């Protein structure tokens, strides 16, 4: 077990900078599993809802199917689950009470599709897939995305469940936009898979930050931010505060670091450290959480997060479908 735990000192954190945000400087503890090596097929995905999502993806991967189909089918599970409050049906609305959805999908060969600010469609990932397969574009937004979905035969439905509506009405009493870490800005599902043939693909889908401004788009549908795949290297996906991931081109950076020789774990760690350096002292640092997961083309995976509490699901033949805690950087 000790090999799974990694304690690091944080040399970067100046006491003054931290004190100015009301946080105590301290030695940082980083615990969690650092990932493993080399199994195909393999699927990993963010948070606890990654378990049923992985199980669905595994049906395709374990029968010789393509990773792009596995990730699309996999993430549909949390999209359709009303208990998952930050993805698809049942997701928290924006501050005006609209559930607006972002999703992206990317294959090993640079094929990619995304939708953002989409309302009324339960499975935005299916629309993203069709943007990829059937249009000359990469991303459709808002009304245009909806129009395309309707043309493709999708039906609109009310995605705001009674539960989420109640929570929104409660939130409106104070209308304070300060997402609760690991609760109000998590639950995006990001999934990465490598199939038997070694093709890497990824998908990412979310209702975004709870109580966001109407029209806000996060990192999840933005290729290079919330998701990036390059079949020559591997793939990465992010969860957490999308603004921070967009600013830092998070997933593209993780893939680029792997291209330059880093393991998935080290690449996720380096990208997270950069986000820390670039955000300490900013007002949103107090509620900043970011987590990355990554796999490379050899079937090695890894993960890292800024703060405690991020976990992810891994499914391979040897270990089955299980949760692992991410190693994290910063502790108050
Ligand atoms: C966003 N990154 O829209 C998403 C939210 C998220 O886990 O990941 N939640 O900012």
UniProtKB/TrEMBL annotation:
InterPro entries for the chain: Ntn_hydrolases_N, Peptidase_T2, TAT_signal
Domain of life: Bacteria
Matches recorded under PROSITE patterns: TAT
Pfam family, one: Asparaginase_2
Name of the featured protein: N(4)-(Beta-N-acetylglucosaminyl)-L-asparaginase
């Amino acid at each position: 077990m000790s090999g799974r735990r990694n304690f690091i000192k944080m040399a970067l954190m100046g006491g003054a900078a931290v004190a100015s945000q009301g946080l105590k400087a301290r030695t940082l503890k980083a615990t969690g599993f650092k990932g493993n090596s080399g199994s195909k097929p393999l699927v990993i995905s963010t948070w606890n809802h990654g378990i049923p999502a992985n199980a669905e993806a595994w049906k395709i991967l374990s029968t010789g199917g393509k990773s792009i189909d596995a990730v699309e089918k996999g993430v549909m599970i949390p999209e359709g689950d009303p208990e998952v409050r930050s993805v698809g049906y049942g997701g928290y609305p924006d501050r005006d009470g609209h559930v607006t959805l972002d999703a992206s999908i990317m294959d090993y060969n640079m094929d990619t599709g995304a939708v953002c600010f989409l309302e009324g469609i339960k499975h935005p990932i299916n629309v993203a897939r069709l943007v990829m397969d059937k249009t000359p574009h990469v991303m459709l937004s808002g009304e245009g995305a909806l129009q395309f979905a309707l043309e493709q035969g999708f039906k609109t439905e009310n995605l705001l469940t009674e539960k989420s509506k109640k929570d929104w009405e409660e939130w409106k009493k104070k209308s304070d936009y300060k997402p609760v870490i690991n609760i109000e800005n998590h639950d995006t599902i990001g999934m990465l898979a490598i199939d038997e043939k070694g093709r890497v693909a990824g998908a990412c889908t979310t209702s975004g930050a709870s109580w966001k401004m109407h029209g806000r788009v996060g990192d999840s549908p933005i290729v290079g931010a919330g998701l990036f795949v390059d079949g020559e290297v591997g793939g990465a996906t992010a969860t957490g505060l999308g603004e921070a991931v967009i600013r830092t081109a998070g997933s593209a950076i993780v893939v680029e670091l792997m291209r330059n020789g880093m393991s998935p774990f080290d690449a996720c760690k380096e990208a997270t450290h950069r986000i820390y350096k670039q955000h300490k002292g900013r007002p949103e640092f107090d509620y900043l959480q970011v987590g990355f997961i990554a796999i490379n083309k050899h079937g090695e995976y890894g993960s890292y997060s800024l703060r405690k509490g991020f976990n992810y699901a891994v499914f391979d033949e040897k270990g089955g479908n299980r949760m692992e805690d991410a190693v994290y950087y910063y502790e108050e």
